[in-house]
User: Fold this.
Amino acid sequence: DHAAGDTVVLASAQTNPQSATDKAVYYFQQQGKKVLHIADYPGLLVWRTVAMLANEALDAVQKGVASADDIDTAMRLGVNYPRG
Assistant:
């Protein structure tokens, strides 16, 4: 979910196979990252969704679908991001 600096934070769903989580941890460790595995909880899904929307918003700006100002307005009014 968050990969700043030398640390990656992972939260895997309970239905996620342990082998898949282990592969993700291994991947990030091979990149020189320290991995912090946190427990999943109901609200975390919301932040994953907002992060996905923010990524798609950036893609829309890069492809010229909308201006950065229009995307910023849509994100603020649509999903209250960033919360201020």
